[in-house]
Design goal:
heterodimer, A: seven-stranded mixed sheet, six-stranded mixed sheet, 32 strands, B: 343 residues, alpha+beta, elongated
Chain lengths: 674, 343
């Protein structure tokens, strides 16, 4: 809300601090000041009033705050309504409220013989400083009182009202033309002010043009009403119209100000537009306000704030804000809440009032004393940091991508839309569903970086979202994944580079027994070339080349391979404990063999055969050469033999190699010993 | 044995060292006289114990003098030899080494890690929870009722799907739902931080993203106060930005805290004097926080008459932007190597 500095000053005998200083105080004790701007001979102070303080959407509300934090008195002139005894308001019009919950109070006054014209300069200046345009003295007066008391008011041209005023819900099909020449369709959820024929105003939001005040108006009806905040909020959204009035009602206004504002407006109009105020105020609910009382203990203030506040200080802060304070006994107060502070409901609300007026800078920092309990780190935070270090050492770049994919991605990657978690209100078609795999956005990372580098390696640790069944299952369907993609000049290069990194990271987590088996999985991998990765017997994920059809659509030039590992499985097998294995005292012997196998025989299989064939002394098998020729490939291995108990003789080694060769030849593979 | 033996050894040594040229020869001479097992002088030194005390004194003295002399001479000859050797071929010491593989860790990961370490050292546990949440955990349990204008502060992404109870699903707008989830399952006293992704239905610009990261904090015990919060958060900020910083609290409003405040810290650029980075105020807004509202404790089935504490939420992207002087939040999700390789 925009406040006028001069207007605020008018309520104080004492000079207020210069505007920048005042703004600084407001920021420290009330709410953030967004801007201070010069406005002719005045200053506009723009304050960000938050939803809990509708009372502050008014100059008098702010005056109360200023009094409190500066510790000075304010002077709010008493309202004097000079009624004309000849006319009685009730004779002019009556008001019927159909739903008391929708409209808890409706106050109206009638003023005759008004002269509609230009507002006096002081009024126009204040409105202008507050960002309001001057229309005519009647409308301006209503806006003025709204900015003064925070209560929105409306004026009707009495002669244009057909019969009495009814506050009711609109009927389907009813329409209204508003003051600014817009037309709105109404329905049963929207509250309106109507006469016996037609809607006169959208309650709490905007007045209609039919009964609007013009230069010809002679008699007016002033409306000062209270409407249900949720009703106004819903209606405002439905018709997509937000006004200064609707904002205030949405925040929830109190029922006492309703009457006060009606009287104030009558007084002001009589002053600036002449007019005779008919006697009596029409009021659908003249119930006396019973102040809420909250018990406040000094020890609670001290405990929550962490200070020792003298009782007198606490009492002063509250009284300065308009709270009534009664001492019940030493250290215990009964605080009564003024009518316009319905946001204060519990003792903590009072403690906040005391703290902010007294000043948070007066609370000294004090380290809490508590039990010495070491922190627990969820595994899902420990392992990612280990993985990041491993990947960094291998030259991979970590990416943080959006959790979303676009409609085009779904097409390119042939994703089953039935398994996607779709957004009901996406920002755009580019971010319309939750990502079912991190690979999509990782490949986008490759695509955009192609101009800058050739060997692109990206990984991400984050969540993927896939529905397995029709209903979303929060545990199964939102998974923490570790995924990566890597480019290469051909499929095998990309695949091996990816495999290298994936194995290194798993090794960093203490996982060594990693196996691969071709499997059926998501369609974006190259079929027959994608493998399930198992470690310590548990499936941890998949790895394989990405289908070239997809990468070409993404304009990726090189071959791409990717892996996806899931964290639930990783946490089951990760182990930071290392166990020392005794180094053998005895030397090792290395023998090389080459075996020629058909092209589609897996290296894993050959190694397994070697291991099985040897049956003893094999400490390691290292593939050091692959030579491909037509339908065959020749694999060369270093076989490292060692015993824990004795030095192996050449004979021992020969025997082992003989067994190995026998085993390999039994599979009809030819062996060449070196 | 008498001192003549020593004198003969001395003469023999001086003869041997004439015309020595190489280090091999020098070593050979050294070994001949002072080699461990077979050195001639060493043998004499070892046999001293067999002499009578008078002879031992005399012979011993001479033997030790010779020992020193031999060692000095050998040392000097070695030094001289070094100087005579041809100087090593000069290498260009400014030549760059072979290109090394450098991977990169994302700046937000770095921020998370540092925050985790600092808070861990203060006994805070690190937890996280689901990104797809229900209305209840994200709003209602946090004292933000339906249709309340307070909900306008968080523009929400809703999913088309509902969960098995038929409840609406949304993408969490803050990491605060974890306060409830954690308190439901753990008894106080407790202290946790929640680093995680959050989502707001907002237009993107240099300062706003719709998919970003936050770090939530929660500490509940019997006597946790605003004073406790000030101490803890100042400690965190000092360590995170590696300097002594001042903080100040300004009143604010969040439905899930009472009192609520905004926290400013001294401007990193000018130290509080005022500059363009802090709009000449000397302060940078860094996070929102407050004392946990009793209704929130009740939602988590805790008794607010016994337990109280603070909660805070900071933007991890903002922390990274301040720490690394990054001026555009969109860079974090860009995947651009020219950005990522700087970390």
């Amino acid at each position: 809300m925009i406040f006028s500095y001069n207007w605020l000053q008018s309520y104080f005998k004492k000079h207020l601090p210069p505007v920048k200083q005042l703004a600084s105080h407001i920021g420290l004790h009330v709410f953030e000041v967004e801007a201070v701007e010069k406005s002719k001979k005045d200053y506009s102070i723009v304050v960000d009033i938050l939803p809990n303080r509708p009372d502050c959407l008014s100059h008098l509300g702010m005056v109360s705050e200023i009094s409190a934090f500066l510790g000075i008195n304010n002077n709010i002139p008493k309202i004097k309504v000079k009624e004309n005894k000849k006319f009685r308001a009730k004779k002019f019009i009556s008001v019927k409220v159909e739903d008391k919950k929708a409209c808890p109070r409706y106050c109206a006054r009638v003023i005759t013989d008004i002269k509609v014209g230009k507002s006096p300069e002081w009024l126009r200046e204040r409105l202008e400083t507050c960002g309001q345009k001057s229309i005519n003295n009647i409308v301006d007066a209503a806006n003025y009182v709204m900015l003064e008391y925070g209560q929105p008011l409306h004026c009707f041209d009495y002669d244009k009202i057909d019969g009495d005023i009814v506050v009711r819900f609109a009927k389907k099909g009813e329409k209204i033309n508003t003051l600014d020449n817009n037309n709105f369709k109404l329905d049963k959820d929207i509250l309106i002010i109507a006469d016996k024929e037609k809607p006169l105003a959208i309650a709490g939001i905007k007045g209609g043009s039919d009964a609007a005040v013009t230069e010809k108006t002679k008699t007016i009806v002033i409306e000062s009403a209270n409407f249900n905040q949720y009703l106004i909020r819903n209606a405002s959204r439905k018709i997509a119209l937000r006004t200064d009035a609707s904002i205030r009602f949405e925040h929830g206004l109190d029922l006492v100000t309703t009457e006060i504002a009606a009287n104030r407006l009558a007084e002001l109009i009589a002053d600036i537009a002449d007019g005779k105020i008919a006697s009596g105020i029409i009021d659908t609910n003249n119930v006396k306000y019973k102040p809420r009382t909250i018990r406040l203990k000094l020890e609670d203030i001290d405990s929550l704030l962490g200070i020792n506040i003298p009782q007198a200080k606490a009492v002063n802060c509250l009284k300065a804000l308009g709270f009534g304070v009664k001492k019940v006994k030493q250290g215990s107060l009964d605080v009564s809440v003024p009518h316009n502070r319905q946001d204060v409901m519990i003792s903590q609300d009072l403690i906040e009032e005391i703290a902010r007026i007294w000043g948070y800078e007066n609370i000294e920092a004090k380290y809490p004393e508590t039990i010495l309990a070491p922190s627990n780190k969820y595994e899902k935070f420990i392992w990612p940091h280990v993985l990041r270090e491993e990947m960094k050492a291998l030259g991979w770049t970590e990416s943080w991508n959006y959790n979303f994919i676009g409609e085009q991605d779904t097409k390119n990657w042939a994703v089953d839309e039935n398994r996607l978690l779709l957004l009901d209100n996406p920002l755009s078609s580019e971010y319309y569903a939750m990502r079912p795999t991190q690979l999509i956005n990782l490949c986008k990372n490759i695509a955009i970086n192609q101009p800058y580098a050739t060997n692109l390696k990206f990984y991400e640790i984050g969540k993927k979202f896939v529905k397995d069944k029709k209903i979303f299952n929060p545990i199964e369907d939102e998974k923490l994944m570790f995924s990566g993609v890597c480019t290469g000049c051909d499929v095998m290069t990309a695949f091996l580079e990816t495999k290298k990194a994936m194995e290194a990271s798993l090794e960093g987590l203490g996982v060594t027994d990693i196996r691969y088996a071709v499997c059926k999985t998501d369609s974006w991998y190259e079929e027959h070339n994608v493998a399930c990765v198992t470690a310590n017997g548990i499936k941890v994920g998949v790895i394989g080349p990405i289908d070239e059809a997809i990468t070409k659509k993404m304009k990726i030039v090189q071959s791409v391979a990717g892996f996806e590992l899931d964290f639930d499985s990783i946490c089951k097998i990760a182990d930071s404990e290392r166990e020392y294995e005794e180094i053998s005292k005895f030397p090792s012997i290395v023998r090389d063999i080459s075996v020629i196998v058909p092209y589609d025989v897996l290296i894993d299989e050959v190694q397994w055969q070697i291991q099985e064939g040897a049956n003893a002394f094999v400490r390691d098998i290292e593939l050091f050469d692959i030579f491909e020729k037509e339908e065959e490939k020749s694999l060369s291995f270093h076989i490292i033999l060692q015993s824990k108990n004795k030095t192996l003789t050449s004979q021992d080694a020969d025997n082992v190699i003989k067994n190995i060769i026998a085993r390999l030849e039994s599979k009809e593979w030819s062996v060449r010993k070196q | 044995m008498d001192k003549t033996v020593i004198e003969e050894l001395k003469k023999s040594f001086e003869e041997d060292i004439k015309n020595i040229k190489t280090d091999v020869e020098i070593n050979a001479v050294f070994t001949k006289y002072l080699g461990k097992e077979t050195g001639l002088l060493n043998k004499v030194l070892r046999s001293l114990k067999d002499l009578n005390p008078e002879d031992r004194a005399v012979v011993g003295k001479k033997a030790n003098e010779l020992n020193k002399q031999i060692r000095c001479v050998i040392f000097q000859m070695n030094q001289d030899l070094k100087k005579c050797n041809k100087p090593n071929k000069k290498i260009d010491i400014t030549c760059p080494p072979p290109k090394r593989l450098r991977g990169h860790i994302h700046p937000i990961s770095r921020v998370f890690k540092q925050a985790e370490e600092i808070f861990s050292s203060m006994g805070f546990s690190v937890i996280d929870g689901p990104e797809v949440e229900t209305d209840w955990y994200n709003f209602d349990a946090l004292n933000i009722p339906k249709n309340h204008p307070a909900r306008d502060s968080w523009d929400t992404f809703w999913l088309k799907d509902k969960n098995s109870k038929g409840e609406n699903l949304l993408l969490r707008t803050h990491t605060s739902p974890m306060q409830i989830r954690f308190m439901e399952k753990n008894n106080p006293p407790l202290r946790v931080i929640v680093p995680g992704k959050t989502f707001r239905h907002e237009a993107i610009d240099a300062c706003h993203e719709f998919d970003f990261a936050q770090i939530e904090g929660l500490m509940i015990d019997k006597n946790i106060s605003v004073a406790s919060f000030k101490a803890v958060i100042n400690e965190f900020l000092n360590r995170f930005f590696n300097r002594d910083l001042n903080i100040r609290l300004r009143p604010s409003f969040f439905p899930f805290t009472e009192p609520s405040f905004e926290i400013d810290m001294s401007c990193l650029n000018c130290g509080g004097k005022g500059c363009s980075a802090c709009k000449h105020t000397g302060w940078l807004e860094i996070m929102g926080a407050g004392m946990v509202h009793p209704n929130v404790l009740k939602s988590a089935k805790l008794d607010p008459r016994i337990w109280q504490g603070f909660a805070f939420g900071m933007g991890a992207d903002r922390l990274a932007m301040l720490k690394y002087k990054i001026n555009d939040i969109r860079l974090f999700k860009s995947g651009d190597l020219r950005f990522l390789e700087q970390f």
